[in-house]
């Protein structure tokens, strides 16, 4: 029997091992996140990724608890990631926010804690707070998300603990090739958010051609490509059938020429970047403020 990709792990630069494929819950309500996490754990997922910014940590925590009860697993069997909210950044505020995060998740520790975005003027102090949480044993590993090369090098120059992860928007249309070289030199693992790239990537003619060739879905082609490129990936779905399908990647392998064909799709096309946020571009009237996104239903969610 072919071993599931859900059991496969990569060792991070601090010696902690992390599952290579997990579940993301961006834009999922608390109720949907609760159900998706429960189903994912029952179907073999061990990596769960959330963030305060998503407004669904309470639902994720409930799903973890239910999933563990239904499977007989223990907390240590899971790898849970969450992130520092933009509006909480700073040393003391990050430490306070972490305590609230643990309460929402109903956990005693987090496996991986990330700076969600490099908020101008705050991310160094935020990182020092993460270093303190790491030294205290409250998190098993710390990392960053959405850090370009300049900000990543700035962080490395001014702090003592090297991030284990940089979680980036990554898919066939946005491959961050220059940044990946910087990360490789520092021993930082890439993790992909939005790995499927939405309709633009899923409907790309190269992807659909390969889906027909291998008799797989377009999503499975992209996720298998991530796997072969040694990129940790967290596709989001709240539908049980897709959650299962996204993990069925072990019984086929993309030929070298097909891996190259997908690499050649790079357009450096980001869906979300610094100018989209008020902390970087306050003059943009459309820029997002520091608030939990509109799909937050923490106030009304009850398990």
UniProtKB/TrEMBL annotation:
Gene3D superfamilies: NADP-dependent oxidoreductase domain. The keyword Transport does not apply. Residues 22-265 form the NADP-dependent oxidoreductase domain. Keywords: NADP, Oxidoreductase. The keyword NADP applies. InterPro entries: AKR (IPR020471), Aldo/ket_reductase_CS (IPR018170), NAD(P)_OxRdtase_dom_sf (IPR036812), NADP_OxRdtase_dom (IPR023210). GO terms for molecular function: oxidoreductase activity, acting on the CH-OH group of donors, NAD or NADP as acceptor. The record marks 83 as: Lowers pKa of active site Tyr. The lineage of its organism: Bacteria, Bacillati, Bacillota, Bacilli, Lactobacillales. Substrate binds at residue 116. Pfam families: Aldo_ket_red. PANTHER family: 2,5-DIKETO-D-GLUCONIC ACID REDUCTASE (PTHR43827), NADP-DEPENDENT OXIDOREDUCTASE DOMAIN-CONTAINING PROTEIN (PTHR43827:SF3). This is MFS transporter. It comes from the Bacteria. The active site is at 54 (proton donor). Belongs to the aldo/keto reductase family.
């Amino acid at each position: 029997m072919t071993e599931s990709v859900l059991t496969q792990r990569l060792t991070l630069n601090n010696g902690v091992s992390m599952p290579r494929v997990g579940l993301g819950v961006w834009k999922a309500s608390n109720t949907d996140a609760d159900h998706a996490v429960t189903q994912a754990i029952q179907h073999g997922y061990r990596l769960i990724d959330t963030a305060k910014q998503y407004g669904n940590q309470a639902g994720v925590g409930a799903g973890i608890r239910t999933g563990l009860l239904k499977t007989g697993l223990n907390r240590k069997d899971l790898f849970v990631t969450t992130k520092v909210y933009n509006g909480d950044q700073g040393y003391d505020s990050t430490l306070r926010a972490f305590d609230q995060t643990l309460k929402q998740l109903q956990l005693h520790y987090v496996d991986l804690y990330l700076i969600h975005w490099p908020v101008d003027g705050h991310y160094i102090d935020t990182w020092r707070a993460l270093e303190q949480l790491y030294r205290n044993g409250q998190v098993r590993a710390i990392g960053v998300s959405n850090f370009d090369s300049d900000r990543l090098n700035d962080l490395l120059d001014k702090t003592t603990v090297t991030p284990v992860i940089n979680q980036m928007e990554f898919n066939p249309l946005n491959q961050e090739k220059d940044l990946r070289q910087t990360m490789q030199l520092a021993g930082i693992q890439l993790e992909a958010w939005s790995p499927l790239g939405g309709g633009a990537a899923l409907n790309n003619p190269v992807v659909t051609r390969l889906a027909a060739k291998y008799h797989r879905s377009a999503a499975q082609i992209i996720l298998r490509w991530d796997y072969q490129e040694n990129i940790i990936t967290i596709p989001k779905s709240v539908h049980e059938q897709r959650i299962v399908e996204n993990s069925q990647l072990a019984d086929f392998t993309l030929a070298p020429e097909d891996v190259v064909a997908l690499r050649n799709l790079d357009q450096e096309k980001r869906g979300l970047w610094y100018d989209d946020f008020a902390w970087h571009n306050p003059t943009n009237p459309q820029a997002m403020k520091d608030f939990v996104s509109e799909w937050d239903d923490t106030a009304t969610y009850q398990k």
